[in-house]
């Protein structure tokens, strides 16, 4: 599965309630003035996920294991482990609360028992699914639901007859100001998801051609085997790169369409968007049923991401601590269980839903530079990569991505004090 579907799993993982909510808020509040942030996010996601996948194929290891193995000094290795565990743990706990809150909003539109109660029920469902060690079938169903919702957004946009010239005009007038920086970071955080780097590397590592460890006393035979293995890795990397670029671009297009429909419904209009009327943007096609369909989409997107976020955290933490990454192992289950419990606790405390989701995405945007810098270092220093290390162009693209994200983060911190 990982070899054939990893790119689409990554795309489905970032098309969660945070994406739908953040893109809707961006379109409603800023029109197309922030599309530049989305376009940058798609480019950056393709660049970073390519590095993560290449690492997994070339070494047969996850990102956390590769980071840890790269360091030989004991105290520095412990620092690395602490940073990986804390960064992914904190980031995924925040992300999980947003996922569960988004799904709870959707269900509460059908049956009003409170988002806190729904978050508890959804957390229990996610625990039950992950405890079985086999979640792919339910994930596939939820991904289909998300893409069905995306199809309705596409149809809605066409029926609404958008003002293309206005959109293009706003696209050419990018905005970066104190009132938009949180939304910009949220757009970046909901697309370039740090935990997806760990998830992608681990998924492709399990199907890597690197798994053959046999050796031969005949140097010629061993050399031929090495050449064949490298050729297989190269082919796997090319296929993974093509699939990831296609899937991530598709996810970006869905996000763009959500922004466009929200812009048409709310930007410069008398009504303001909140949790109760987000589905209004679908009314041109679905009429009075728009809110219900939007709620169903939020539920599907939220539960999908609520499963993948703790799963990725388990891969990252277990890799860093040298624990088994078998889904049924005690350590693996402990990690994802802790993430879900934290997510449920935060979601059940009664925070306002839209700020909670936006905060989760912005948190990921601030944590991203830490993981991206580590990934860049690994892709240049790891001896296990061999011929599959970063090229000059990969490094230039990676440094550009990290520089922009760090710059935006510093701008956000500066705006808090000035």
Q: How do the helices and strands follow one another from N- to C-terminus?
A: HHHHHHHHHHHHHHHH
Low-confidence stretches: 211-216
- Which structural class matches the secondary elements? mainly alpha
Characterize the largest beta sheet: strand count, sense, and whether it forms a barrel.
none
What portion of the residues fall into strands of 2 or more residues?
Answer: under 5%
How many domains make up the coordinates?
1
State the separation between the terminal residues, measured CA to CA.
50 Å
| Second-tier CATH architecture | Up-down Bundle
The tally of beta strands, per DSSP, is: 0
CATH topology: Amino acid/polyamine transporter I
Give the overall form: globular
Q: What is the CATH domain class?
A: Mainly Alpha
- Cα-atom radius of gyration: 21 Å
CATH superfamily: Amino acid/polyamine transporter I
Q: Quote the average pLDDT.
A: 78
Helix content: over 70%
Number of helices: 16
Can you describe this structure?
This protein is mostly helical and 418 residues long. The chain has a single domain (2-210, 219-417), classed as Amino acid/polyamine transporter I, CATH 1.20.1740.10. It is 78% helix and 0% strand. The protein contains 16 helices and no strands. Helix 2 (17-30) packs antiparallel against helix 9 (181-191). The radius of gyration is 21 Å and the shape is globular. InterPro entries: NRAMP_fam. Keywords: Membrane, Symport, Transmembrane, Transmembrane helix, Transport. The chain crosses the membrane at residues 7-28, 34-53, 74-95, 115-134, 141-160, 180-199, 247-270, 290-323, 335-351, 357-379, 391-411. This is Manganese transporter. GO terms for molecular function: cadmium ion transmembrane transporter activity; manganese ion transmembrane transporter activity; symporter activity.
